[in-house]
Amino acid sequence: MKLQDRVAIVTGAAQGIGKAVADKLAAEGAKVVAVDVNGEGAERTAEGVDGTAVQADISKPEDVQRMVDETVSRHGKVDVLANVAAIVPFTAWDDVTFDDWRRIMSVNLDGLFLTMKAVEKPMRAAGYGRIVNVTSNVILAGTPNLAHYVASKGGVWAFTRAAARELGKYGITVNSVAPGLTATEGVMASPHAEAFEFVQMLQCIPRRGEATDIAPSVAFLASEEAGWVTGQLLVADAGMTHN
Prior knowledge:
The protein is of the alpha/beta class. Helices cover 46% and strands 15% of the residues.
């Protein structure tokens, strides 16, 4: 197993891609800490993988520090951070307000900064770390009704590249996975669900993407096998886009 005895924090783990990532990392041997603002959902995921749960809002510094402190207290280390938590809106450009913009940025980008800063200390002390940030193929496609989301996810990719430069000397890799449209609970309950037929026409593989299609890319980048891979964008969208 690729992640035997590794300790992995997965944010956004209550459902969708986050839950699939938690399940996959656990299947590869990791001790998973499932983190979500939805505490009950995090508990359900943790129970399913014999892991632990932390209820936390990653846009709040105190919640993020508690998340890391509890993980280190329980497991003694943090080997992997999978940043999956995000807000995915559907808002026409004319209707996007600055409050909308700040809400998206506070989770999708501020949360990334806070979680990476918090796990950096124990990872640097250990001389080992794997950080995998989930962005989106919308940064390559400029998808409509998502301007603030596209901006935030573009920031995720740019920050990933910059952080890889900063942290490589400490034995920490930082990479990003860009999923395409994926049939998660959140997507299927939103207007984005209506886009699948069109998106499948653009893909090389003509079927709906599932959360389990994304998790293996995260697991690879979180593993020791990816030790010579950093600052990279792995696009997992059935060939819809290219970078």
